[in-house]
Every structure is written in structure tokens, then in C-alpha cells.
Design a protein that fits this description.
Blueprint: H1 6-9, H2 14-21, H3 37-49, H4 54-62, H5 74-100, H6 108-131
Helix pairs in contact: 3-4, 5-6
InterPro entries: NikA-like
Protein name: Mobilization protein
Keywords: Plasmid
């Protein structure tokens, strides 16, 4: 007779539902505004140059931040990072060879040739950086 459905015992009050839905943010206020297509493209290009999202870029500008564009475009930065990574791997291979052959006579000619190639490629990376 006195059967009560479980559904009624777990119904949350409107107050707790509202509280649970509100995210805990460091900056709780939101500002939104509309821009034209051309304005958005300019903002997007500026943000991409700085490797930022459009909202992050606009927020920094609104806060008066002085944003300085990187000297290298994204493709050049990625290319230089890839080249440096490869040079680092080559240097590690040379070090590994030296460590493995420290108790025997290493092939000095091959070692010197590899180190010379490494230096030349590093000089090319530096040249790329100086041209920018």
C-alpha cells in the first residue's frame, strides 16, 4: 500500500539542477560580438601568424597585450624543427657509435665524415634562420 516510486525520491530541486549545470570558470563573464567576413579573415590571419586561436588573439588584443609576430612563418618553423630533430638524431648515433667502440680503434675517417656532414647541415639550418 505505501509503495513509493524510486523516481520521486531522487528528484533534484530546481536549485541544485541549476547549480550543477553552471561550469566553474576562472572568468565567468562572456563577451560576444559579430564581425564581417573580411574582418574575421584578418583576425584569423593575425592569430595564425602568432600560432593562436582567434578567440585567444582577440582576448589578448582587448586586454592591450602587445603581440609580436614570430620572425619565421609556420612552415619554416616546422621545417627548421624537423631539420634540428634529424641532426640531433644523427649526433646521438655518432655518440652511440663512439660509446660502443671506445675499447677498440674506431673508424676515424667515417666518423670525421659524419661529423662534417652534420656541421654542414647545421650551417644550412643557421643560414635559413639568418635569411628570415
Amino acid at each position: 500500500m505505501g509503495c513509493m516510486s524510486e523516481q520521486n525520491t531522487f528528484v533534484a530541486s530546481d536549485e541544485t539542477v541549476g547549480r550543477n549545470r553552471k561550469p566553474n570558470r576562472k572568468a565567468p563573464k562572456q563577451i560576444s560580438f559579430r564581425v564581417s567576413e573580411s574582418e574575421y579573415l584578418k583576425l584569423q590571419q593575425s592569430a595564425e601568424t602568432l600560432n593562436m586561436s582567434v578567440p585567444a588573439f582577440v582576448k589578448k588584443k582587448a586586454q592591450g597585450a602587445r603581440l609580436v609576430a614570430p620572425k619565421l612563418d609556420q612552415a619554416t618553423r616546422q621545417s627548421v624543427a624537423k631539420d634540428l630533430s634529424m641532426l640531433g638524431a644523427n649526433a646521438n648515433q655518432i655518440a652511440k657509435y663512439c660509446n660502443q667502440h671506445q675499447h677498440e680503434a674506431p673508424n676515424y675517417e667515417a666518423l670525421e665524415r659524419n661529423i662534417s656532414e652534420l656541421r654542414e647541415r647545421l650551417d644550412e639550418v643557421w643560414k635559413t634562420l639568418k635569411e628570415q
